[in-house]
Structures are given as structure tokens and as C-alpha cells.
């Protein structure tokens, strides 16, 4: 039987960012240096393939520090942790390694600086996301307010409208966040903004890459975890940018090929915590059914690297 043609527009950049690379490497180096087991508080990054690979090497993933035995190393995830977590680790004299993405740490530092200057801090982010929990946990209770939408801004009750600042989660929709920032600045003209954009370079670049292919594609597939903020935003951005159908899948096995009926051009990308192997597996799965042509659409190359903790490089 003759296969139907399918052109895959492969977005670039896609997949792993520098923060994810660093976090995974920290766990791997800890296993090499200290031996198994190395405990990790929460998923190191939001991707089951990555987590299962590290489990196979000797990593043990837990939700809270109370599950970590004495005298074993523990790694904090790339999303960042509230201050009480590091305080508890220090109290227990634990050997802990902080894999928080440096761009998330930058948000933590900014929030603390604003609070020290007497400003009430507003965080733009998604309630319940680990990064949001970690950022809000940098300050005492009620010192930071969370907004998720423009509507939240309109009903926000603040202490002093003249003494406010905002920070943002690093993995949000660039366009949606701009609307929320605009609403904050209209309602509170004196509000202090970050010195530098909080949404990380990887989120921004991957969303731009999806926009570059969305209006050419009949459908867009984003490879990423359902609990990955940046991956979910990519699927949403594709729809807003002009593609009629968009889906988020964790791997090729989740894709029902019937979903591609009538699709001649498919956009393909991956969230910042999805390995490239999953992208290639999906292309191979498509090639089993279609006559596939892959067209790379690379907007730019990323060459950012973050340094590792000295405890692992000394």
C-alpha cells in the first residue's frame, strides 16, 4: 500500500535547555561521586523518561525530605524549593545539592530583594506548580501574592499600591504574561518590574519556534509531560499562532495515528525537559505509517551553559 506523504516541520530550538541539562548532570555526577543511592526531592525535571533513566542508575525520587534517610546525598529539583526545605536540610546536617535552575534562582533573589526594600511582591504564575511553590516559599506567609490571569489582577487586594513589585514564573506563555503585566502596570503604575525578563530564554525561544511553524502546519505535536508548564504552553501557543489542532504527548506510544488523518504538514517540537530521543522516536513512528519528509526550521542556536556545584567538580 502506498503511504500518504507527511512533511514534518521540526522546530528549533526544542527539547533540553541549559537548566535541565545541568540538573540531570548534577544527579549523574552525584551518583558517580557518592555512589547509589542518591535521593532527589521531587522529579528532577518534569519528564518520566528522564526520571526512569536516573532511577535505573540509582536515583531515588521522593516527595519530601522526611523520606530521605540519614547520611545519603539529596538533590533539590530544577524547579527550586522553599526556604524551609534548605533550612531543614541544614538542620539535619544533610549533604544536599541544589539543582535549581539559575534563572529560577534569579527570580528568588529578585523577590527577596524587593521584600527587603519594603515592597509587597506579586508573582505571576500557575498555582500549585513546583516552581511557584518554591518562589513563594522564599518569603514569609502572605508576603507574596499570586496572580494567574488578568481577571486576578482586577480583584487583587494589596497593602500599599505605591510599594509593589512583580516577578514571574519562568515557563509561562510570553504573550499571556505580557497581558497580565500590562494589567498590573495599568492598575498599579508605580509597580517595580524585574531588572531583566523573568521568562527564561528557553521558554521564549521554543515559543517563537512554534510560532514560526504553526501557520504552515495542519497540526502540531508537542512532546512533553502533562505536568510540564513550558510544554503545555507550547501546545497552547501553536493554536493561538494559527494552527487548527495541537496536542501534547509524552512519547510516540501515546499518539493515536488516526489523529493525523487529513494532515499533510505536521509541526513537531519538544518541551525543555523532553529528551531528543523522544522526538526521533515519534518521527520513526510516523515513518511507519506515512512517507515522511523532515524539514528543519531552526530560528537560532542556543549555546548557554550553567556551571555545576563546586562539590561535584572539585
Characterise the protein shown here.
A five-stranded parallel beta sheet has the order 10-9-11-1-12, with helices on both faces. A four-stranded parallel beta sheet has the order 3-2-4-5. The mean pLDDT is 96. The relative contact order is 0.19. It has helices at residues 18-34, 48-57, 83-91, 102-116, 130-136, 150-154, 174-187, 201-214, 229-240, 276-289, 310-313, and strands spanning 5-12, 38-41, 59-62, 74-76, 96-98, 120-124, 144-147, 164-168, 219-223, 246-249, 265-270, 291-298. It has three domains: 5-16 and 201-298, 4-hydroxy-3-methylbut-2-enyl diphosphate reductase, catalytic domain (Cobalt-precorrin-4 Transmethylase, domain 1, 3-Layer(aba) Sandwich); 18-100, Rossmann fold; 103-187, Cobalt-precorrin-4 Transmethylase, domain 1. Helix 8 packs parallel to helix 9 (229-240). The longest helix has 17 residues, at 18-34. Helix content is 39%, strand content 19%. It is flat. It is of the alpha/beta class and 314 residues long. The termini are far apart.
Amino acid at each position: 500500500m502506498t503511504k500518504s506523504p507527511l512533511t514534518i516541520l521540526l522546530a528549533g530550538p526544542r527539547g533540553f535547555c541549559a537548566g535541565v541539562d545541568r540538573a540531570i548532570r548534577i544527579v549523574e555526577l552525584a551518583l558517580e561521586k557518592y555512589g547509589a543511592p542518591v535521593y532527589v526531592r521531587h522529579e528532577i525535571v518534569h519528564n518520566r523518561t528522564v526520571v526512569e533513566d536516573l532511577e535505573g542508575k540509582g536515583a531515588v525520587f521522593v516527595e519530601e525530605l522526611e523520606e530521605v534517610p540519614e547520611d545519603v546525598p539529596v538533590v533539590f529539583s530544577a524547579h527550586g524549593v522553599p526556604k524551609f526545605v534548605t533550612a531543614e536540610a541544614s538542620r539535619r546536617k544533610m549533604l544536599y545539592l541544589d539543582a535549581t535552575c539559575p534563572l529560577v534562582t534569579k527570580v528568588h533573589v529578585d523577590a527577596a530583594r524587593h521584600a527587603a526594600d519594603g515592597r509587597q511582591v506579586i508573582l505571576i504564575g500557575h498555582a500549585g506548580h513546583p516552581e511557584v511553590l518554591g518562589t513563594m516559599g522564599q518569603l514569609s506567609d502572605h508576603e507574596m501574592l499570586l496572580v494567574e490571569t488578568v481577571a486576578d489582577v482586577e480583584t487583587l487586594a494589596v497593602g500599599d499600591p505605591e510599594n509593589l513589585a512583580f516577578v514571574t514564573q519562568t515557563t509561562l506563555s510570553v504573550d499571556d504574561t505580557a497581558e497580565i503585566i500590562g494589567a498590573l502596570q495599568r492598575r498599579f503604575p508605580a509597580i517595580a518590574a524585574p531588572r531583566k525578563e523573568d521568562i527564561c530564554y528557553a521558554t521564549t525561544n521554543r515559543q517563537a519556534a512554534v510560532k514560526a511553524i504553526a501557520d504552515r502546519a495542519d497540526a502540531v505535536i508537542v512532546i512533553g509531560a502533562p505536568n510540564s508548564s513550558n510544554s503545555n504552553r507550547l501546545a497552547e501557543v501553536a493554536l493561538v499562532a494559527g494552527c487548527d489542532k495541537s496536542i501534547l504527548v509524552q512519547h510516540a506510544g501515546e499518539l493515536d495515528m488516526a489523529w493525523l488523518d487529513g494532515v499533510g504538514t505536521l509541526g513537531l517540537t519538544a518541551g525543555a525537559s523532553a529528551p531528543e530521543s523522544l522526538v526521533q522516536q515519534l518521527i520513526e513512528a510516523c515513518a511507519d505509517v506515512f512517507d515522511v519528509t523532515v524539514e528543519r526550521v531552526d530560528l537560532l542556536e542556543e549555546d548557554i551553559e550553567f556551571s555545576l556545584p563546586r562539590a561535584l567538580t572539585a
